[in-house]
Design brief:
single chain; 106 residues; mainly beta; 4-stranded antiparallel beta sheet; 3-stranded antiparallel beta sheet; 0% helix; 44% strand
């Protein structure tokens, strides 16, 4: 069973919006889009650049360095230069608090 840690309150991230948190020794960017929360490792799979500094466009985050795009729901790389996904994390909301799994989805 996955372990979760509280990162923020449900209203702390605007919709749409994003914020970076440290979760179990890794930086994770949490997205709030259309009332749902998603989380990805805060690193582009192409060069490790922080995705949290990129532009959020719907359900896509654009890496600020080379323009690679990732689906925030799955971590899937959507265009070059990234060809590998970035790890995605389960997110749940309980009692108004946003919790992120300490390990990426398998």
């Amino acid at each position: 069973m996955a372990e979760y840690v509280k990162v923020c309150g449900e209203t702390d991230i605007p919709d749409p919006g994003k914020q970076v948190f440290e979760v179990a020794g890794r930086f994770v960017v949490v997205f709030h889009v259309d009332g749902q929360f998603y989380a990805l490792e805060d690193a582009c799979s192409h060069d490790g650049n922080p995705l949290g500094e990129g532009q959020l466009e719907g359900f896509q985050i654009v890496c600020p360095r080379h323009g690679a795009r990732f689906d925030i729901r799955t971590g899937q790389a959507l265009c070059m230069p990234a060809v590998r996904p970035t790890p995605a994390y389960e997110v749940k909301v309980e009692n108004g608090q946003v919790l992120v799994a300490t390990q990426p989805k398998r």
